[in-house]
Design goal:
Length: 221
Amino acid sequence: RRIEPWEFEFSFDPRKFCKEACLLYEIQWGNSRDVWRHSGKNTTKHVERNFIEKIASERYFCPSISCSIFWYLSWSPCWECSKAIREFLNQHPNVTLVIYVARLFQHMDPQNRQGLKDLFHSGVTIQVMRAPEYDHCWRNFVNYPRGKEAHWPRYPPLWINLYALELYCIISGLPPCLQISRRYQNQLIQFRLILQNCHYQMIPPYILLATGMIQLPMTWR
């Protein structure tokens, strides 16, 4: 099922905090070039758990055949879903998982941070969605109008780079540096960078400079 353009823009806009989580996913089996695509949302369970239960119960799921799964998530997994994902992958070693996220879910929570870190170190690729991923999702998952295949929502790179910076901190075991606040009266989302010495010492300068919010000395090593 292809989702509607407004649904894609609403769910995957990194500047907005929608409550509903959306998952777009692709599955490839063995050496086959065929790609199976579908989408999912939260129910009484998070969308990640719904996916795991669904694929494990499908008749075509054969644990002995290699399987590549690509997720495009509007929110990163919470710590409980991260644990469920690791358990699923441990039970099915022939499955590889790549996760792209539009936002980080409650990234200040230590358990959520540890969950993402554990996922990464268990072999799961986790990245923030950038222009190529948005374009790919628009072309393959969205019911766009005829002639609008190249008209995907191009979001300002600032928010994308800020989330990418914070994800780097999570994976590297650094404290949070991205602070997000909401003004509920006008629904404005405010992003602030609060950097400590450890951030300057351990984060490559090009990642910091990509945010456009800080300037480093020319003599930086």
